[in-house]
C-alpha cells in the first residue's frame, strides 16, 4: 500500500508538473504574441514620428525659402526707390551740362560727376533704356508726335528711361513718328 501511495503521489506530482509546464508554455505563447503586438505598435509609432519629423523639416525649409524671397523682394523695392530718387540728380546734371554749353572747368566737373554717378548706378543694375531700336511701349512713354521721324520710330527723347536689373524703373519720355 505504501508503494501504491508513493506511486499515486508520483503520478500526482508528474501531473502537476505537466500542468505547470503546459501553463508556462501558454504564458510563453501569450508573451510572444504580446511582444509581437508591441513590436508592431512601436513600428507604427516610429513610422508616424518619422513622417512628422520629415514634415517639420519640409516646413522649416519652406519657411526659410519664403523668408529669403521676401527679403530679396524687400531689397529690390528699397533699391528701386533709392535709384528713382537718384535719377532726379542725373537729370539735373544733364540739364546743367546742356544749359552751360561751353567747355570750361565747371562743365567738365559736372560731366565727371555725372559719369561717376552713372557708373555707380550701373554697378547696382540701373542702366539706360535703349531708344535706338524704335518705339517699345514696355520701355517708352510716347508724349507727342515728331513730324520728322518715321512711323513707329523715336524722333526725340525728352527724358531718358532706365531699367533696374531688367525691370523698368522709369520709362523714357519720347516723341514718336506717325
UniProtKB/TrEMBL annotation:
Residues 1-32 are annotated as: Disordered. Keywords: Chaperone, Cytoplasm, Stress response. Gene3D superfamilies: 3.90.20.20, Head domain of nucleotide exchange factor GrpE (2.30.22.10). One of its GO terms (molecular function) is protein-folding chaperone binding. It is found in: Cytoplasm. The keyword Chaperone applies. GO terms for cellular component: cytosol. Residues 1-29 have a biased composition (Low complexity). Its main location: cytoplasm. SUPFAM superfamilies: Coiled-coil domain of nucleotide exchange factor GrpE, Head domain of nucleotide exchange factor GrpE. The keyword Transcription regulation does not apply. Participates actively in the response to hyperosmotic and heat shock by preventing the aggregation of stress-denatured proteins, in association with DnaK and GrpE. It is the nucleotide exchange factor for DnaK and may function as a thermosensor. Unfolded proteins bind initially to DnaJ; upon interaction with the DnaJ-bound protein, DnaK hydrolyzes its bound ATP, resulting in the formation of a stable complex. GrpE releases ADP from DnaK; ATP binding to DnaK triggers the release of the substrate protein, thus completing the reaction cycle. Homodimer. Belongs to the GrpE family. This is Protein GrpE. It comes from Acinetobacter defluvii. The gene is grpE.
